[in-house]
Amino acid sequence: MEEQPFLGQSPQITHLLRTLPMIAVSDVSVLIIGETGTGKELIAQAIHKESRRRQNELVTINCAALPIEGIEDDLFGRCDDDGNISHRGRLLAAEGGTLFLDNIEALPLSIQAKVLRFIEAGECQLIGSHKLQKVDVRIVAASGADIQHEVDAGRFRSDLFYRLQVVPITIPPLRERADDIVLLLRHFGREFSGNNAVVRYGKEVERCLLGYPWPGNVRELMHFCQRMALLNPGKAIQMEDLPPEMMPEVAASNHVFTLPSSGIKLAQVELDLIEQALAMASGNRSRAARLLGISRDTLLYRMQKHSL
Question: The domain that contains 45 carries what CATH number?
Answer without folding.
Answer: 3.40.50.300
